[in-house]
Design goal:
Layout (H helix, E strand, L loop, with lengths): L7 H16 L4 H8 L3 H11 L4 H36 L3 E3 L5 E3 L15
Antiparallel strand pairs: 1-2
């Protein structure tokens, strides 16, 4: 059976239709068969969208997408921050072609005097 993605508006319309059928005395099995969804899908929709209006559902989807985008942004920035901290500490190491590690950053040597001209 081909999977169909329903929009939040379609889900809410189907839930309203299901409520009307249930009120007329039909069983849940008959209702989900008429809606062409599984009973599990019906209950998941009921838990997620029950009592919601179409505009609320649309806003919920927008907020979920924005939240995902912001989580990715935070993860990228955290990774950048951690890399920069490693570089500042001088702990950034690169691998040579033979597999051994080589330091690419080193701390300033104490034998040089800082601020004096040669």
């Amino acid at each position: 059976m081909k999977k169909i993605r329903h929009s939040p508006e379609q889900i809410i319309a189907k839930l309203r239709e299901a409520d009307a059928m249930l009120a007329s005395g039909r069983s849940i099995g008959q209702v989900v068969q008429q809606l062409a969804v599984s009973e599990q899908t019906y209950h998941r929709w009921r838990n997620q969208y029950g009592g919601m209006k179409a505009s609320d559902a649309k806003r919920l989807k927008q907020l979920e997408q924005e939240n995902g985008r912001l989580k990715k942004l935070v993860a990228d920035l955290s990774l950048d921050n951690a890399m920069l901290k490693e570089v500042v500490k001088g702990e950034f190491e690169a691998r040579r072609s033979d597999g051994r590690r080589r330091r690419t950053c080193s701390a300033p040597s104490s034998s040089r005097s800082v601020g004096r001209a040669p």
